[in-house]
């Protein structure tokens, strides 16, 4: 058994499953229901709903797509981590660990990818 290949497949699974989950649950609803989301989004830094929603869409749609492809993975994790930290500590500081478990688990996933990188199974990379 090749440990390097196992690690690469493990990172691929973490990358793709975490990114697609974030995209499906948070990103796509923001894009598909943009007008409704403008009325619902929290704006903790008073940037305006359009700017705040645009930043959230960047972090929850574009960044996960880059991560799935294995392109600029560490860099793409940073906006996601920022949105999650803001959501957990600024927007919803009253949440218990139980109420915020989904956010904390996503934070664990994307921080792990930031630390470990994408592995060798990325777009444009040969795997032998």
UniProtKB/TrEMBL annotation:
Organism: Pseudomonas rhodesiae
The keyword Transmembrane belongs to this UniProt entry's keyword annotation: yes
Stored Pfam families: DoxX
Keyword annotations of the record: Membrane, Transmembrane, Transmembrane helix
Entry annotated with the keyword Membrane: yes
Protein name, entry field: Oxidoreductase
Primary site of residence: membrane
GO cellular component, one term: membrane
Membrane topology: Multi-pass membrane protein
Chain ranges passing through the membrane: 9-27, 47-68, 75-92, 104-123
Localization per record: Membrane
């Amino acid at each position: 058994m090749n440990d390097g290949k196992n690690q690469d497949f493990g990172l691929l699974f973490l990358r793709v499953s975490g990114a697609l989950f974030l995209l499906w649950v948070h990103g796509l609803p923001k894009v598909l229901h943009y007008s409704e989301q403008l009325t619902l989004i929290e704006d903790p830094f008073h940037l305006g709903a359009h700017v705040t929603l645009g930043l959230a869409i960047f972090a929850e749609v574009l960044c996960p797509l880059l991560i799935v492809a294995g392109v600029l993975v560490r860099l793409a994790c940073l906006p996601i981590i920022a949105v999650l930290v803001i959501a957990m500590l600024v927007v919803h500081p009253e949440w218990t660990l139980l109420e915020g478990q989904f956010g904390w688990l996503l934070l664990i996933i994307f921080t792990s990818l930031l630390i470990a990188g994408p592995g060798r199974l990325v777009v444009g990379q040969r795997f032998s």
